[in-house]
């Protein structure tokens, strides 16, 4: 299934929707402002919280925890590298890794080192510049979408820090 998220809405202070190929709202996302660390919740169309994302505080490198209810099911941590972007992903749902060009937002999520279960591309579609996330059938779509949002947030933070130096 393909999902679309408008460019420049990956902000923890915003509210935005995740659409399907037909332009229908599939999920909505709400960020918390005025809190210590970034916090974000993904809801289904019945206003039921599906995923909670929270930035881990006091870390040298960006780190985000992903929860279903009270259970932490994933963690994304940026690795220390000089010339490339790399991320450590831990999940109770499987062994995930990333391959591709993060700067261009063109990458794949790999599961168990075998093959791509999601492809992320930045493109131009009918409702403006956006990210297309193509998630394989049988995968946990909200979890994959949360990985994409966290990775974009970390990259956005890096661009902001780089521009301020």
Please describe the topology of this protein:
Layout: E1 2-6, E2 15-20, E3 25-32, E4 39-44, E5 49-55, E6 63-68, E7 71-78, E8 87-91, E9 96-101, E10 106-111, E11 115-125, E12 128-135, H1 141-163
Antiparallel strand pairs: 1-2, 1-12, 2-3, 3-4, 4-5, 5-6, 6-7, 7-8, 9-10, 10-11, 11-12
Q: Give a count of the beta strands, DSSP E runs of length 2 or more.
A: 12
Low-confidence stretches: none
Task: Please write the string of helix (H) and strand (E) elements.
Answer: EEEEEEEEEEEEH
Tally of individual helices: 1
Described by strand count, sense and barrel closure, the largest sheet is: 12 strands, antiparallel
Structural class per helix/strand content? mainly beta
Percent in helix: 10-25%
Q: Which percent band covers the strand fraction?
A: over 45%
Query: Which outline best applies?
Result: globular
* Overall pLDDT confidence: 83
Distance between the termini: 40 Å
Cα-atom radius of gyration: 15 Å
Read across the widest sheet, the strand sequence of neighbours is 8-7-6-5-4-3-2-1-12-11-10-9
Key words describing this protein structure:
1 helix; mainly beta; 50% strand; globular
């Amino acid at each position: 299934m393909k999902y679309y998220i408008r460019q420049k809405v990956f902000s923890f202070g915003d509210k935005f929707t995740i659409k399907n190929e037909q332009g229908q709202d599939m999920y909505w996302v709400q960020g918390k402002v005025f809190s210590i660390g970034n916090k974000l919740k993904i809801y289904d169309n019945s206003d039921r919280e599906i995923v909670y994302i929270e930035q881990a505080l006091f870390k040298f490198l960006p780190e985000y925890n992903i929860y279903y209810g009270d259970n932490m099911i994933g963690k994304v941590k940026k690795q220390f590298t000089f010339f490339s972007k790399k991320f450590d992903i831990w999940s109770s749902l499987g062994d995930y890794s990333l391959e591709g060009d993060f700067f261009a937002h063109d990458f794949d999520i790999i599961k168990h080192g075998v093959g791509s279960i999601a492809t992320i591309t930045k493109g131009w579609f009918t409702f403006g510049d956006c990210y297309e996330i193509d998630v394989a059938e049988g995968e946990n779509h909200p979890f994959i979408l949360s990985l994409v949002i966290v990775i974009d947030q970390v990259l956005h933070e890096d661009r902001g820090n780089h521009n301020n130096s």
